[in-house]
Amino acid sequence: MNATLIETPNEALARLFSRISDLATLPRLAQRVLELAWDESATNEDLRKIIQQDPGLTAKILQRVNSSFYGLPHRVADLNKAIILLGFREIQAIALTVFLSRLFDHCDSHGTYRRESLWHHSVAVAAASRTIARICGLPHPDEAYVAGLLHDIGYMLLDRHLRRHFYAIIDQLTELRPTFDVEREVLTFDHAMLGAFVAERWQFPGQIVNAIGYHHQLPDHPYPHGSLIACVHLADYLCSRSGCSSLGVINVPEFSEAARRHLKLDDISMALIEAELPLALTQAGELASMERLGAA
């Protein structure tokens, strides 16, 4: 795994993060599907064998493939055919989305926060990240989808394991102050730091760990995986500004110039992104709703 520069600021936080990562386990099948994302030798058969170990996952994928989202002319009843029709990466993205939806297995709310809205935001950022990566010429748009899908995993960890403190943060949110400032005041750390630490403990690749850890505050200097971080940073900004926010308050900082440089983003690319974003968000909303209903 690539080395990362995500660090906890002191030993006490490292112990806390370690306890949370011990409590928050990623299903082994989800881990294996993720591993295939970075295995250049992986085949359709490898993916099929993993997915078919989970009948519920198989059913959800076939349900998704046969939905109006893809508009296939004939019903698909076989997983292997689904992989051939939609492609390895698309089926893999659906599988990861289904796995993550299971973390949102109960509706919950507090103040401006709705767990379902956090889920919709996660899928929206995933879809927007893939769109941005494609338009900006990043080599692996599907990697951007995974990074976007997981970028706010820290919030779900806070919701599940530090709920009293999480609600205290929500109670103090305003549109005038970034959420990560409030988090650091209440907790001494933020959701990005926690998410990156746990992602590294789950043995995610370094580029995904860094995209989670720095998606709000991209380093200004040249940085490992900077273009992927910038992709998720811009996607998070655009989705939040469009009203699809994580915690119900639109307070994301402005899109950074450092991210613009990492993406080599010009006015034409930005115009293309803004033109394609509404459709990407509509499709993400359909996907999130379908998978969320399956998790409820």
Weakly predicted, low-confidence segments: 1-5
What characterizes the major β-sheet? 2 strands, antiparallel
| Helix and strand pattern | HHHHHHEEHHHHHHHHHH
Task: Please count the beta strands (DSSP E, at least 2 residues each).
Answer: 2
Distance between the termini: 34 Å
**Average residue pLDDT:** 88
Can you characterise this structure?
The protein has 296 residues and is mostly helical. The protein has 16 helices and two strands. The protein has helices spanning 11-23, 28-36, 44-51, 55-65, 79-86, 88-101, 115-135, 141-150, 153-161, 163-171, 179-187, 191-201, 206-213, 226-241, 257-263, 267-295; strands spanning 109-110, 113-114. A two-stranded antiparallel sheet has the order 1-2. Helix 14 (226-241) packs across helix 15. The longest helix has 29 residues, at 267-295. The protein is globular.
Q: Mind sketching the topology for me?
A:
Elements: H1 11-23, H2 28-36, H3 44-51, H4 55-65, H5 79-86, H6 88-101, E1 109-110, E2 113-114, H7 115-135, H8 141-150, H9 153-161, H10 163-171, H11 179-187, H12 191-201, H13 206-213, H14 226-241, H15 257-263, H16 267-295
Antiparallel strand pairs: 1-2
Helix pairs in contact: 1-12, 2-3, 2-6, 4-6, 5-6, 6-8, 7-8, 7-14, 7-16, 8-13, 8-14, 9-10, 9-12, 10-11, 12-13, 13-14, 14-15
